[in-house]
Design brief:
Shape: globular
Structural class: alpha/beta
Largest sheet: 7 strands, parallel, barrel
Strand content: 5-15%
CATH architecture of the largest domain: Alpha-Beta Barrel
Distance between the termini: 27 Å
Amino acid sequence: MGAFYTLRAPAVKKSLNSNLRALGGWMCGISGAHRALHRGKVVILMYHRVLRDDDEAIPHMQPGMYVTESSFERQMGYVSANYEVISVADLILSLDKGGLDPGKRYCIVTFDDGWRDNFLHAYPVMKRRGIQATIFLTTGFIGTGKWFWHEKARYLFMHGRNDAARICRELLASGKASGDIISSVLGAIEDTEGAEGHAVTDAVVERLKAFGETSIEDSLKRIYEPLGLRAPDDRVFLNWHEVEEMSKSGISFGSHTRTHRLLTTLAPGEAREELEGSLRDLSGGKINRVPAFCYPNGNLDDGIVKMVKECGYLAAFTTSFGFEDALPEDPFRMKRIGVHNDVSSSIPLFAFHLSGLRHKLRL
C-alpha cells in the first residue's frame, strides 16, 4: 500500500493541479481581470528554448527550459494584441524620464543563454510581428560546440538512463570517481524510477548545483565513456553571424556572463571577469548591444549587484517571479515571469500564468 501511494500521490497531485490551472485559465479568459491587474505594470517574460513541436528531446527536457514553436506563436500573438510590447532599451531609457505611462500595460520579451533555436524557431515569429526581444548571451558559448553540463546530463539520461545507474554503482564500488557527485546522480536516478523522462534530469540538476562545474563535467564524462556515448558537441548555441542577423531586425543582446557560472560562488576577481569579459565579447561586430545583465540561475547578493553597476550595466534581471511598475523600484533586481510549455501551452493557461494567480496558488 505504501509503495502504491508513493507512486500514485505525485500523479494525482499533478492531475489535480492541471485541472485547476485549466479552470483558472477559463476564468481569466471570461473575466479579463488579469488585464486590469497589469495596468501600469511591465510584464517581463523569460524564455530559454523554443523547440519544434515534435522534437525528440522534449520528454527528457526540464519543463522550465522550453516552449514549443506553436505555443510561442500563440503567446506572441496574445501579447501583441493585449500589451504594448517594448524593448529592454525602451525600459532603460524611461528610467531617467519618470518611468513609463502608468495607464498602459507593457510587455518585454527576454531569452536567457543564447540557444540556436531562438534563431531557428523564435526569431521568425518575432520578425513577423515586429517584436524587439532581448537575448542575454552566455558569450563564451556563442559560436562553439560547447554544452551546459545540465544539458549533457539530459542527453545522458535520454540515451542511457538504466545503464547509467549500473555505471554509477560500478564507479562507486571501484573508487574511481568523485563519490559525492556519483552518489548524487545515482540517488536521483533511483528516486525517480518509474517517473517521466524529465524527472531524472530535474533531480540530477538540482542535486549537482552544489558542486563545482569542473568536477561535474569530469564525473559525467566517467559515466558517458563506459556507455559508449560521445559527449555531444553539435552546435546548440547561436553563432555571431546569427546574432548580427537578428540585430538587423531590432533584436538586442545583453550579457549572461561568459561561462554561466554562478556569480555568488566565485571569487570577486572571477566574478568581475565574467561581467566585464561578456561586455567585451558583445562590443565587437555589428551587434545591437544593450547594457543590461541577467543573473545566471538568478543567483545574486548585494556585492554582486554593486559589481554589476560598477561594470557599466544600466539594468539587471532576476529569475524572481513578478511584475515591475511603470517605474521599477530597483532596476538591478527586476522580476520576470518564466514561461514554460507545461503551464502555458494554450492562451487561457498562458493568461492565467501571467496573472500571477497560478504562482500564488502553487498550481
